[in-house]
Amino acid sequence: GIMAATRGFRQRNVRKKTGGWGEADLPLQDPGKYPTRLQMYKTAPDDDVSLEEFERFALDRLRVLKALEHAKIRWPKKGDEFEQRMRTVLKQHLPLSDDTGENIFDERRKDHISHFVLRLAFCRNEENRRWLLAQETELFRYRLDTVPIEETLDLMKRNNKTYKILSADAKAELRPFLAGVHPPDVVESSIFFEVPFEQAYEAVRTRRVFLKNGTAYVPRESMIAIVVGAFRAQLSEFLAAMSKALPALEEDDRLLPRLISLSKNNVGNEYSRPADSGAQVCVADIPKLATESFPLCMRTLHEALLGAHHLKHDGRQQYGLFLKGIGLTLEDALLFWRTEFTKGMPADKFDKSYAYNIRHNYGREGKRTNYTPYSCHKIIMGSSPGNGEHHGCPFRHFGNDALRAKLLSYRVPAPAITELIELVENQRYQIACQRYFEITHATSAPDLILVHPNQYFQESRRILTGAKDSAGPVAGAK
Fold first, then answer.
1. Helices (H) then strands (E): counts for the chain
2. How many C-beta atoms surround the C-beta of residue 398 within 10 A?
3. 283 partner at 20 to 30 Å CA-CA among 137, 250, 290, 409?
4. What is the pLDDT of residue 153?
């Protein structure tokens, strides 16, 4: 539980051998504590952890998770470049050796502690929980893919995930059906496990198993999907429970600031202040900037606003916070929205129904929260636009015909449109946006990973104005 986790992260009073206050003692190395390198993280750490370790371990794990997120975007089919990137990052920040390694206790202890620190840091809101759940699941899957299958089966056994093995007679009876799903060598040589349908969701969804009477027959080589599904379900449950118990942390003035700082690092720059994006933007600049430097999602919202003199709530939130992030002040934001909305409604209706929300987004009303612009992840994973709505990601939420028409209207060359549509059909939405950026700016940026509309804007201005520095995250950035 949450209290067990927080008790495990006590700040300890430590002494140097001379008797003075100083460096921490080394943790007692209990060989039985981490018998294997893989674990499901069911039990929180119970040893003392210094605040320096608390923060350093978590930051190293966060670097790995962000590198993994970027690598999946850049190399969605994985391959040699993906493998090389992940091997390098893991070796540098979060190594996890087999039993022949020299520092296996320290490596496994760091892996254990860092996972639980990030749980504490990222359970505070739904977006962060979803992000951590996705990245931790992918890291777990990657590790399972790189170890012998015997380690995966051992992990299942140690976590009471044991399944009945299909008998030889039953296998012979089902052989024609198994052969319809698996290669002949797998059918002949592999043992098959009988797994309840609900625990084999991923394998069933991708039609990689034979299913009969609620039982999935899973070959030994495919059990990774079962373990990953169990890990994801367990972590999701733990994060939800942790979020409900957060008041227990509010009193700890040592941990809370560190946890909040960690959670804000998950998408890099939050673009929550106009200064984050450089020079201030005024209302008169917006039309030119929309044509030159807005990502497709924001240009679409801008044009919808000009056409209808109105945007529904989700569109106003997505576009309004983006404008805030590029440097539009509250006063100019009120002027911008009032100018457009009052072309279709009386000024007093705007003041009564819409001005409050704009001030609220700038932290001047209500809880006075400094709301941050939406990231690509939040936009892509958010609600789909309904009738009369224009929010979302065009690469994710437009149909192919509508997307093609939009790109043609922006004079994107036909071969480039074909390339972008192909990326969309393969669900590579962020790569499509990045290629759109490269095409419209006549540049190639292989090391750039776009994860935020405001980063897109910032990179565009850097290219168009000749600025030397980029504030956006790049693949491999530390």
1. 23, 4
2. 20
3. 409
4. 85
